[in-house]
Amino acid sequence: MDVKMNEFMDGVRMKNPGEDEFLQAVQEVVETVWDFYQENPHYKKAKILERMTEPERTIIFRIPWIDDSGEVHVNRGFRVEFNSAIGPYKGGLRFHPSVTLSGLKFLGFEQTFKNSLTTLPMGGGKGGSDFNPKGKSDIEIMRFCQAFMSELFRHIGPNTDVPAGDIGVGGREIGYLYGQYKKLRNEFTGVLTGKGREFGGSLIRPEATGFGAIYFVREMLATKGETMKGKTVSVSGFGNVAWGAALKAVEYGAKVVTISGPDGYVYDADGITGEKIDYLLELRASNQDIVAPYAEKYGAQFIAGKKPWEQKVDIAIPCAIQNELNEEDAKMLIANGCQMIAEASNMGCTAEAAYLATDKIMFAPGKAVNAGGVAVSGLEMTQNSMRLNWSEKEVDDRLDQIMTEIHAACVKYGKEPNGKINYIKGANIGGFVKVADAMMAQGVV
Ligand code: 2IT
Predict the structure, then answer these.
(1) Do the Cβ atoms of 143 and 113 come closer than 8 Å?
(2) Does 374 contact ligand 1 (Cβ within 6 A)?
(3) Does domain 57-188 have CATH number 3.40.50.10860?
(4) Any atom of ligand 1 within 6 Å of the Cβ of 367
(5) Rounded to the nearest whole angstrom, what is the distance from the C-alpha of residue 284 to the centroid of ligand 1?
(6) Which residues form the catalytic set?
(7) Which of 267, 340, 272 is nearest to 301 (CA)?
(8) CA of 39 to the centre of ligand 1 (A)
(9) Residue 3: its pLDDT value, please?
(10) Which of 99, 162, 209 best tests ligand 1's pocket when mutated (most atoms within 8 Å of CB)?
(11) Which of 106, 110, 126, 166 best tests ligand 1's pocket when mutated (most atoms within 8 Å of CB)?
């Protein structure tokens, strides 16, 4: 590493002690944009990177709520408003016991670059709570969402900050959050995305992250003159992202053989198709956070306590959570002939795994691969502003076009002299330029 880059990273480390995930995300971006940053001294003079690595505002709040037995609980709520240079803060809310400030800072930082890549006018933000939805009743979920919004409402708005779902926050939660916002503000506006169809939601938003990921994988394969037909695919997770990716991968003629949860993974040699894909929604809605019931129901193999990366596949698509695929996993995949790892989860691979995969096979980072989710959120905002709803085809065509363009941006900025595409570099520089130029134009604010 360049000495000056080291000094820069030392500064970030001193300001954010112990925030490992945030530092991992910053390091990856800084390493890949550093040369470009040096070649453009006007950015450096304006301390663009120093400003980009500091959230504009971080809100932390108390969420007291009462469970079904009358016991009082106190959770912590967050909203990290990272960067508003190119549009209102935009990014999901995560409800998961692992949620920390560091995790949400990493996600908000990544979101800034991702949202820029979509070409839509959205800044970067992220929020959530350490609340664990596992085993909670529907009424408890509603009460918690209301308690969360009772504080968040004063910080957000359709032109200020537009949250959406993420892990633990799906259509049901967005509905409850929206209801509480509307009650408190007495305003019907597009303040959240991922809403129900009846109150301003967009068609294809539930499928968008998974569909977008597969459109991106299709473009990656096309650079080698290949298609998804006949390819074997492993996905992790069993939520919204895994579901959408499985639907589109199967439509393209691929065979999806795994899903996973905190309890282990399922290997379905016949492929996860048709009603088996629909069943993932049921499994998720049960709030139990396990995948073993799939294996029982469909006579597939269940491997307790393991991750799916030990299986031989052509393409691996992590769809669960950050750092779910490490260097050992990447080595195993590569040794078994895997030709591509495409992150559909945010920072799904550890830094070591991502670099190894970039070097040996094809690798693309989450901020490019999973941008379809927030892209359709952006299209939901457009529809809300117009007070119109687009057809499924209109939204899906736009999503496909956006993903194809993100891939082209990765090629533009990430193609190495030897012809290989470094998607990490391509996505980071591609995302950086628009935000940096907007910040330059707006002065030191
Ligand atoms: O990580 C992500 O891009 C999301 N959770 C979606 C964010 C959004 O605003 O739709």
Answers:
(1) no
(2) yes
(3) yes
(4) no
(5) 18
(6) 126
(7) 267
(8) 32
(9) 66
(10) 209
(11) 166
Is the CB of residue 166 below 6 angstroms from any atom belonging to ligand 1?
Answer: yes
How far is ligand 1, taken at its centre, from the CA of residue 115, in Å?
A: 9
Residue 232: the pLDDT is: 98
Residues 6+ apart with CB under 8 A from 297: 279
193 Cβ inside 6 Å of ligand 1: yes
- Looking at residue 219, its pLDDT comes to 98
- In angstroms, what is the span from residue 135 Cα to ligand 1's centroid? 24
Cα 45 to ligand 1 centroid, rounded to whole Å: 32
Ligand 1 atom at minimal distance to the Cα of residue 114? 3
Give the tens place of pLDDT for each residue, 320-374. Answer: 999 999 999 999 999 999 999 999 999 999 999 999 999 999 999 999 999 999 9
Strand order in the sheet with 232-235: 301-304, 264-267, 255-261, 232-235, 315-317, 340-342, 362-364
Please state which of the four CATH numbers 3.40.50.720, 1.10.3660.10, 3.40.50.2300, 3.40.50.10540 is assigned to the domain occupying 208-369. 3.40.50.720
Taking 50 as the pLDDT cut, the residues of the chain under it are none
Residue ranges per domain, the chain?
A: 3-52, 57-188, 208-369
321 C-beta closer than 6 A to ligand 1: no
99 token code pair = 């949620």
Taking the complete model, does pTM exceed 0.70, yes or no? Answer: yes
pLDDT the model gives residue 296: 97
Contacts of 387 (CB under 8 A, 6+ apart): none
